[in-house]
């Protein structure tokens, strides 16, 4: 008999986590695991940062709630906005606070539409995203998500959401092409999509700088610069979804800087509070902010916001998170540790059952090849995951790609531990397959 609070989609009891310390978590059976994926790519400062607990407690005692709505806000939300403006990789006009990556992306899509509407272009409503992109599960973010299982049964998308090819260097349709040729092919196809649907109907393009849940896809060099030319040519806004990559994971505060992007809007969540409390920030560039502000001045309202926008306790934790990230130079630490992870993962390149190895900052992926093992797609990933868990390492599998996204405070010694346990899991799966 399953408990009533068992997640809706499960028909077996869930793995219950009860405690955390450093980069490890303990389950209800009392077993400790190294968390190789930081919760959901998100617990950047690990599970026992006392400063975040103190920040939450102090704020709870001072003012547990007053959100940002209508003409009222709170001092902490204002201070967090100023903190974010200081580190923003784009000239930021305003920041909008929400509670999750999904609502940040829904907000960004609404802002893009409002931007066009306020300038007399109400027909610009469509959003282009990638086939393998992940932007969340709410109506708009889920519609922009390109993973079929997110759509299944929910009646999402419709005519306003279009998908461009996944910018995957291993895309079967671009097999045999050089990197340059592949970028040409992707960009040509992207522009054809825009032209076919009518540029005058497109509001925005949304993309992760590195595509996480789609299987850690690192677009080919030069891809975004060329896409940007298409966007500029057709007056389409660019929303960079930095929900995974924001606040240090790539070795820069934002992947926008690491990859030289020029987004109009950046969405962020997860690492903003090291996930200690739910909070998202949508960074709205100056150009869009000005139009939004002028539009709402003229009609006297801007009908978007949540009860918990700018929640003071979440904002206090986010402020402290950013203070720690800056004081300890977490992006610099990532730059030091990342090559260690990269070297360890590179050892799997060309190994039996392995199709590809990818890494960027503290993001890594080992893609298994079901064809080599005559396995169903996704099966090898699940097998490695299960054995890794038995060996005390939590990872995630996106299809056959096993991903690594440890807390950013991980040390080189702990990276070794992750790699050792992963190697042992791989060896076990390989041995079992050979039997
Ligand atoms: N965008 C990206 C890139 C994500 O990886 C995620 C979640 O994993 C989201 C958006 C959605 O965030 P949330 O689950 O907080 O709604």
From TrEMBL:
The keyword Oxidoreductase does not apply. CDD domains: OAT_like (cd00610). Gene3D superfamilies: Aspartate Aminotransferase, domain 1, Type I PLP-dependent aspartate aminotransferase-like (Major domain). InterPro entries: Aminotrans_3, Aminotrans_3_PPA_site, PyrdxlP-dep_Trfase, PyrdxlP-dep_Trfase_major, PyrdxlP-dep_Trfase_small. The keyword Isomerase does not apply. SUPFAM superfamilies: PLP-dependent transferases. PROSITE patterns: AA_TRANSFER_CLASS_3 (PS00600). Keywords: Aminotransferase, Pyridoxal phosphate, Transferase. It holds the Pfam family Aminotran_3. Belongs to the class-III pyridoxal-phosphate-dependent aminotransferase family. PANTHER family: ADENOSYLMETHIONINE-8-AMINO-7-OXONONANOATE AMINOTRANSFERASE (PTHR42684:SF3). NCBIfam families: PRK06105.1 (NF004767). This is Taurine--pyruvate aminotransferase. It comes from Streptomyces fradiae ATCC 10745 = DSM 40063.
